[in-house]
Amino acid sequence: MQRILQKFISRKLWMALTGVVSGIALLRSGSITEGTTLLVSAILGYLTAEGIVDARQVQTIAQAQQAAEEKR
Length: 72
Known about the structure:
- The chain is an all-alpha fold.
- The chain is built from three helices and no strands.
- The longest helix has 40 residues.
- The chain is elongated and about 65 Å long.
């Protein structure tokens, strides 16, 4: 539950949502290319950022497990 709450207060999420809302506004105003570009880039940016964060967490856990095994 804490992890989900942490994602909702994440600046990455709010920036992605801002990009999505802005993209939808552009689409509704008739700027199809700009709106689609903004939507896709906001979503891909968020997914990339979360992927980097998750990869670092996995790396940290793996290093901790390796250090624990070496102590045995």
